[in-house]
Amino acid sequence: MATEHFDVLIVGAGLSGIGAAHHLKENCPNKTYAILEGRDSIGGTWDLFRYPGIRSDSDMYTLGFSFKPWTEAKAIADGPSIMNYLNQVLDDGGIRKNIRFGLMVKRADWSSDAAAWTVEAERGGEIVRFTCNFLYMCSGYYNYEKGYTPDFPGIEQFGGRIVHPQKWTPDIDYAGKRVVVIGSGATAVTLVPEMAKTAGHVTMLQRSPTYIVTRPAEDGMANWMRRWLPAMLAYGITRWKNVLLTMFFYQLSRRRPARVKKTLIDLVRKQLGPNFDVSKHFTPSYNPWDQRVCLVPDGDLFTALRSGRASVATDHIETFTPKGIKLKSGEELEADLIVTATGLDLKFLGGLEVTVDGVRREVSKAMNYKGLMLSDVPNMAIAFGYTNASWTLKADLTSEYVCRLINHLDRTGYRQATPKITDPEVTPEAFINFTSGYVQRALEKFPKQGSKRPWKLYQNYALDIVTLKFGSLDDGSLVFSNPAPVAGTQTALAS
Known about the structure:
The chain is an alpha/beta fold. The protein folds into two domains: 4-144 and 345-483, FAD/NAD(P)-binding domain, CATH 3.50.50; 164-220 and 258-342, FAD/NAD(P)-binding domain (3-Layer(bba) Sandwich). Helices cover 30% and strands 25% of the residues. The strands form eight sheets. Strands 1, 2, 3, 4, 5, 6, 19, 20 and 23 form a nine-stranded mixed sheet that branches. Strands 8-17-9-10-13 form a five-stranded parallel sheet. The two termini are 36 Å apart. GO terms for molecular function: flavin adenine dinucleotide binding; N,N-dimethylaniline monooxygenase activity; NADP binding.
């Protein structure tokens, strides 16, 4: 099979990859590209997860693309609505024909002589090779094959069914049954109120509480503006309103953690009433935004708890039993179905093996440049969203930067752009400053960030706009090299 060549290869056909393709078409219209997708469908996260109630935990005015207005009434959207939105983007931009499905990208080798990547993907045991001048990784950050489930003692004893939300299948029946959902993160607080609608009873079993905030599923101001203003204008105003509110909340949380903590706990107490033990079940031991804050639309979790169809147990698991779970306190939670909403298995670059001129590059030893490239790795960018805001905000900015960089290489005649650490005062720091278990378990697999610009991740959308959209490309840390051979040079040398 002949090796196909593209100017740009995008890996992943989820939110990031689809957005990347749009930006390339708009800003680099003369460049050829293809999207390599390991699965048989688009959507990434939004196609993979099929558990009850699957929805965004960010508003769609910021999780949506900058170029495509979100026009549905609900700002907190369910999975099928998000998939419909992504399919519209594909069809509007004629992007679908550029996606190659069923290709699991495994290896990429950069050749400075050719100024190109050779990318190897697997499809049914067969190796398929591509070459490209720029490689854009939009593969997300977790293992699509499996989620994370702890080694629970006695798990083999349980007589019912156990499922991780990442492996949810349509045949799972929970109507009228007793369900225990293990976890207290975004997945758990989505599952519990949805399952409580038809289950006999749902218990959310958590080791420790999480910060949970409620907000309306619909953005009334956005829906009002959309009736009276052009779609892009209404979308842009709402997008910036939500960005600024999110940034304000995050900064206030970091500067006045005790004040924000009290406010959040008081809001939960107001939702659940004076007789609910909020101190035990909804008062975390850490500060707000040391871990991600969970969102519940229209307070649906609290509604389920007040109705009695759901409850919370805050305790440690001693062992699974034939009938359910025995807790350290001695209580036993009987269950017909146990859902282990216990987190993700993080996987940087989808486990891609990277070599540069035949030398293996360990990505865990690299340093992240501007949150989108790796030190000493040429012509490769990575879409990695914010931990304190919507993923797509950073993915959009990254795609715009990639297009600027590709056009700059064309203008200058250079074929290679490589981040290099030239400042001896830059010291390594953890890639993500989060205490969440799923992050801490995987940090050693991830690159480092630096102690100062341009190697530091500020998790700040406004600052990144200045840096990525308008900042100089030639900043002393991004080294441009490998100029294109002058036409006729080889002939002259030969003579």
